[in-house]
């Protein structure tokens, strides 16, 4: 009989806690990202996978690539406008510490050559220049 009482009390406590939680806001999270294509292959066999890299954050994806290309900028911050995509710069690294360079700095209008053969995505850092 005591087990039933404990179970009832625990159930009531959990139900009241769940009812007291505030409703989740249905708003889009603030973000500012560089839009890139992760390129694999060339010619008719080329595959482009759209990805987003948050500015100032070393980011990785589970992809095999031969190159990277900046395609634009998306900013979802109230009161802020997206900077011109020509001001975006990115660089690929082979490690999560940004010590081992994986590519030269690249900008919109050019594909960053990573490897002739597909290689691990690595880590990418993007930023805005003056």
Description:
Residues 1-20 form the signal peptide. This protein is mainly beta and 130 residues long. It contains one helix and nine strands. A hairpin with a 6-residue loop joins β1 (31-40) and β2. The radius of gyration is 23 Å and the shape is globular.
User: Given the structure, what is the number of helices?
Assistant: 1
What value does the Rg take, in angstroms?
23 Å
Distance between the first and last residues' Cα: 73 Å
As residue ranges, the low-confidence spans are 21-27
Strand order in the largest sheet: 2-1-4-7
N-to-C series of helices and strands: HEEEEEEEEE
Portion of residues in helices? Answer: 10-25%
Largest sheet: 4 strands, antiparallel
- How does the overall form come out from the CA principal axes? globular
Quickly count the domains: 1
Strand content: 35-45%
Give the structural class. mainly beta
Number of strands: 9
What is the mean predicted local confidence, pLDDT? 85
Summarize the structure.
This protein is mainly β and 130 residues long. Helices cover 15% and strands 37% of the residues.
How is the secondary structure organized here?
Layout: H1 2-20, E1 31-40, E2 47-54, E3 64-65, E4 67-76, E5 88-93, E6 106-107, E7 112-113, E8 119-120, E9 123-128
Antiparallel strand pairs: 1-2, 1-4, 3-8, 4-7, 5-6, 5-9
Features:
mainly beta; 130 residues; 4-stranded antiparallel beta sheet; 9 strands; 37% strand
């Amino acid at each position: 009989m005591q087990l039933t009482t404990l179970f009832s009390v625990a159930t009531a406590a959990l139900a009241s806690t769940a009812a007291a939680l505030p409703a989740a806001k249905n708003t889009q999270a603030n973000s500012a990202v560089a839009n890139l294509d992760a390129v694999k292959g060339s010619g008719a066999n080329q595959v482009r996978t759209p990805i987003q890299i948050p500015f100032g954050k070393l980011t990785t994806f589970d992809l095999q690539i031969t190159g990277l290309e900046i395609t634009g900028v998306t900013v979802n911050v109230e009161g802020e406008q997206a900077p011109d995509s020509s001001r975006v710069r990115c660089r690929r690294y082979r490690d999560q510490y940004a010590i081992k360079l994986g590519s030269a700095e690249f900008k919109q209008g050019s594909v960053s050559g990573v490897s002739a053969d597909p290689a691990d995505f690595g880590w990418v850092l993007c930023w805005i220049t003056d």
